[in-house]
Fold this sequence. Notes:
Chain A is of the alpha+beta class. Chain A contains 21 helices and 26 strands.
Amino acid sequence: MSDKLILPRAVEAAIRSVNPATTRRDFLKSSGALVLTLSAGAAPVGKALAQAAAAGPYTDPDYLELDTWIVIHPDNTATFYVGKTDGGQGTGTAFRQMMCDELDIAYDNAKLVMGTTDITPDQGGSGGSDGIERDGWPMRRTAAEARRVLLELASERLDTPVTGLTARDATISVTADPSRSVTYAELIGGRRFDIALSGDNINQTTGIAKVKPVQDLRVIGQSIPRYDIPGKVEGTNSWAVDVKLPGMVHARNVKPPIAGATLRSIDESSVSDMPGFVAVVNRRNYVAVVCEREEQAIDAARQLVVDWTPPAEAPFPASDDLFDYIRDTAPTSVSDTDDAGDPDTAFARAARVVEAEFEVPYQGHTAIGPAHALADPSDGQMTIYSNDMKSYGLRNGVAAFLDMPRDRVRVVYMDGPQMYGRTAADDVGFEAAFLAKELGRPVRVQWMRDEETAWDTKGPAYTFKMRGAIDGDGRMSALEYDARAIDYNHVNYNEPDTVLIAQLMGIRRENPDPGEAKIPQTQYAIPNRKMAASVISLPLAWETPLRTGNLRDPDGPQVTFAYESFVDEMAAAAGADPVEFRLDMIERSDEDPRLRRARSLATVRAAAEHYGWDSRPSPNPRMLEGGGPIATGRGIAFTHRNGTVVATIAEVEVNRETGGIWVKRLVCAHDCGLVVNPLGLTQTVECGMLHGLSRALWEEVQFDAEKVTSVDWATHPSLRHADTPESVEVVIVNGDPNPDRPDLPHYGAGEASHKPMIAAVANAVHDATGVRLRRVPFRRERVLEALRAYS
Amino acid sequence: MSLVTLRVNGQSHEVDIEPGTPLLYVLRNDLNLSGPRFGCGLAQCGACTVIVDGVAIRSCVTPAASVSGEITTLEGLSRDGQLDPVQQAWIAEQVPQCGYCQNGQIMTARALLDSNPNPTDAEIREGMQGVLCRCMTYYRIQKAIKRASRETAAASFRDGDTPASEGAKA
């Protein structure tokens, strides 16, 4: 075990950024206006820094103080503190751009610190692609307020009214005589603003100042390269997996081999002679093995002899029987309905009626790096180094779970493998903290690959039953929609009574989460509707590897696959072009015509135009010409996600002999309002699409009636290099009816482009072959079967 | 425990480990080289890739004691303070999202270009097939490999070397 202390870069940067000789917390606590009196030569390093950082207690930074958000340094640079996390989608860079713009400081002269519970205000971490859409606003407003205060100070210093001053690059000058100027550092460098903000909650945080009109923004809108990329490429980035503390040990979990099994006994002597053995820790069905070295813990966890009693009844049906189970089981609740018009009459009068069913299996997050956390119990406190995207929730949950005061627990957010929802990063933080408290030593836990793939939370499996009517005018006059999702006892973020260790310890909440199944947003004119979505439960609701939790755009890809496939099916039944059929239904919809409808129309049209879409019905009437094995087709899918509008066109090649699908070209028209960073947005949209493509082509959790059998990359496959499209094109759209309005909002990205991807692929396969794919994922054996059944 | 000598990024290290210890844990935990990362422990994903004598290997399943050659990790790719052309291309194309797998992508791409300086699209797909990215940065990775190939060829042309046979494999 190395004694070298590696201090997390985020902490180090945060501490050093204020002043080498004081800490971030001291700065926030200090009451005097001047905190920068200590000699810079007194800079503590290494362990002294760590001790200063670990001193506690860890009180919450007050979001109603301007000093919580922004610090101006003596060298005329700034540091911003925000309560978000960035899984690599460039939100950190975007937030920095937003705040630089409002503050009038060059991007290169500012830094941004994210998501560490005792030094950044609680904005909840990440989730729901709401960082830019919602959390960027308090950041912009606080930066604008700091600029306002600086202008006031400059006005006094330069004896000139604020209206006669110009702020630029962290310097304020007299507009009429630019030789008279003062820098931000000269005004307030190293000192507190001591300005109170207002707002009923952190999202409402504001000062007196107003944000700039869009026309005055200079940093927003620039394609600035992401600040986190060089360190990730050079190998100098500091990750949550990298943190090492003196005396730390390594733990690995031992999970029940059969879901619902109960522990009868543990033979500790099976591992106690192994090198580096420290302890076996057991509470009811939770078992962990702790060793000095990482590989020792891995070996010992594999060798530990544990006797388990299998459950009396099967915990769940095998995955091959899952969809029949869903259809045959009475729902636990109906979670979403939408009824309109008179569907019965519409069906009675229909020129054509179409019925369809769709199925989507459980799919996993399966992070590339299994869940991990390091917990340090020093000084009766608890510090958790984690990549959990909701670091504040992890702090709160662990404090409750361990019955510790909240201000004795902190979470240091650091980079880690992608998050995309409620992952085992939550579970493992609790496990590390529990073990660290038990052993009184820093404990690092990482899940193994089989554990991650089998036991991480899943996106729920769905069945859909739909029926639609086409009237005499070739329009969709009615829709019946019946969706069912296995989502009972849905696991939410960082709950001390639903994290896996709590469940295995026997903790049960009185009322399990009812779960949720969704109906689609009716973005089209479908006057007569009967729509319902119901939740189903499995026999085993607790301690199950088939836990459901939020997976990227929860429910969206499943619901949009069924809905947008069915709309395509209706277009085909009407003999209409799929783009024109959708445009007609959008034009006649009762959506807000000035905003939503205009943006929908602009986005669908932009996708079609960029793709070079030629108007004709699907399937391609010439699909059988040529006679070779490769059939080519195109398909569109359209959706909204919160404020963002997205239309995606996929061009596919289907090999009729093998069933293999290659998505050759993707075009995504994406309207998320004001774009903060076009480069970062484009990359995020590309990756969101390809993750959707992975779910379309490959991803499915499989299990027998005892356990999950998807345990690695062979049994829960993912998109690979060979599947990559030849071309991925992102078209940034601003479909606002008043595109130049000064208050153009910024909406989210991350999940929107992920949502319609499965449907776009399925619709393209139909165009190419005439075959409607009804069961996700579209693996070649299933596609081949469908092709054969069709011909 | 036994003493094992490893040559990593041009330096020699002696470590006292159990003979079967995978190279990954020695690099990460004894030598504090955090480029290679644990992803699966099964040689399926590539996150742990290092280069040994020019060949990309999976350090999660390779016993440290079995490695006698020169090991290069992500930290050792740069030369004389200059990033490797692959790393430069990675930054230019803004490849990583979360970045956790990128060690494996970069190291595998480096070894691929060492054995085939001017790969076709199909050869890139084939050569990179075993390295997984859950953020799905594949599209940019492939662009970056082509850029690194192009710019290395242009640089050696400037340096007076024989230019790589552009288009020979197209």
